[in-house]
Write a structure and sequence with these properties.
Elements (H helix, E strand, L loop, with lengths): L1 E10 L2 E11 L4 E5 L6 H9 L6 E6 L2 E2 L5 H4 L1 E5 L10 H11 L4 H14 L15 H13 L5 E5 L7 H18 L3 E5 L2 H7 L2 E6 L2 E6 L1 H6 L4 H6 L4 E7 L5 E3 L2 E3 L13 E6 L11 E13 L2 E6 L4 E4 L8 E6 L4 E3 L2
Parallel strand pairs: 3-8, 3-9, 6-7, 7-8
Antiparallel strand pairs: 1-2, 1-4, 4-5, 9-10, 11-12, 11-14, 12-13, 14-19, 15-16, 15-18, 16-17
Helix pairs in contact: 3-4, 3-5
């Protein structure tokens, strides 16, 4: 449905987007995930028609949108700042866009009632938006984006202004609502957990390019690069030298990676990922030893940091200063190329 072909964009001589291409299908939720300044928001604005690319095409069902103005694209765009009108109640905020289209009031009322039920706000229709919680205001803004039945939905850090516990509560609800809309969704975030919770497919943006694309599970299993593994918070990234026996010599010892799909030569500099999740009683040929520098409780176990700054998640809490020796299973070590 939506196709981006070789999008380039620069600002003040600096390349911001460098050959971005991807497609979004019906009902697919795509998360653009990257650090601040990676071009995510600019890409949304190009899709919406608020910015023009230096080169490249934005296609909808095969039609080039270059000469189609923003208001005729019928794409919904929601920002972190909900921009609700404080002098209007919930129903009036949601209906605002429809009123601008001169739709009959009876039809507006029916559509607003329908969408408020979808976001579970029908009981708040006459409430002032200033009397709502942050999560309720977020749902009002979402209803306002959904009410004109857009062909495509776009979100620019919509949960960024909320505290973490509220964001986590809203993620599952937001995914349900977006699934029910049955239109493609482009969702911008810098939060990895948010992307994992919402996305069918994640596109990692780095230095103006999509460096990795896949389902949340695919990215977790195979980040593809040291940068991606670090950004996704998958574990410890160590540089080392590939040895003739297939192991990798690092500053804290040799390790053997499981199922390496790359071709390496002896002496080559490569990166490995050591996953921090260690099962109790696990064994393997990768031997890790070091003095414990820090221990703190984390979820249902303990995050243990060694003097080498390698960290592990353990089901027990060793003492600070204790010498820790662990045989890592081979699957805990992964080659990053």
């Amino acid at each position: 449905m939506l196709d981006l072909i070789d999008i380039h964009k620069s600002y003040e001589g600096a390349q911001l987007l460098n050959g971005i291409s991807f497609s979004a299908g019906e009902s697919e939720i795509i998360c653009l995930l990257g650090a601040s300044g990676s071009g995510k928001s600019t890409l949304l604005q190009i899709i919406a028609g608020l910015e023009k690319p230096d080169s490249g095409q934005v296609l909808w069902e095969g039609k080039d949108l270059a000469i189609t103005p923003t208001h005729l694209r019928n794409f919904g765009l929601m920002f972190q700042d909900y921009a609700l009108f404080p002098f209007l109640n919930v129903a009036e905020n949601v209906a605002f866009g429809l009123k601008m289209q001169n739709i009959p009031q009876a039809a507006i009322n029916l559509r607003v009632d329908e969408i408020l039920k979808q976001v579970d706000l029908q009981q708040f229709a006459n409430r002032k938006v200033t009397d709502l919680s942050g999560g309720e205001q977020q749902r009002v803004a979402l209803a306002r984006v959904l009410v004109p039945r857009p062909k495509l939905l776009m979100f620019d850090e919509p949960l960024g202004a909320l505290d973490r516990s509220l964001r986590e509560d809203l993620q599952a609800e937001l995914r349900r609502i977006l699934r029910k809309s049955r239109v493609p969704v482009i969702y911008v975030t810098h939060d990895q957990e948010e992307a994992y919770a919402l996305a069918d497919r994640i596109l990692l943006l780095h230095e103006g390019q999509i460096t990795r694309a896949g389902s949340p599970e695919e990215l977790w299993r195979d980040p593809g690069s040291a940068w991606a593994a670090s950004f996704l918070g998958l574990g410890n990234i160590l540089s080392g030298q590939y040895l003739a026996d297939g192991s990798v010599q690092t500053s804290i010892g040799p390790f053997r990676a499981s199922d390496c799909q790359h071709s390496h030569y002896a002496g080559e500099a490569i990166n490995i990922l050591i996953r921090p999740e260690i099962e109790q009683g696990s064994g393997g040929e990768n031997y890790l030893e070091g003095f414990v520098k820090d221990v703190h409780f984390f979820k249902n176990g303990y995050r243990v940091t060694l003097q080498s700054d390698v960290y592990l998640f353990l089901p027990y809490a060793p003492r600070v200063g204790e010498l820790l020796s662990i045989n890592l299973p081979e699957r805990s070590v992964q080659c990053l190329g």
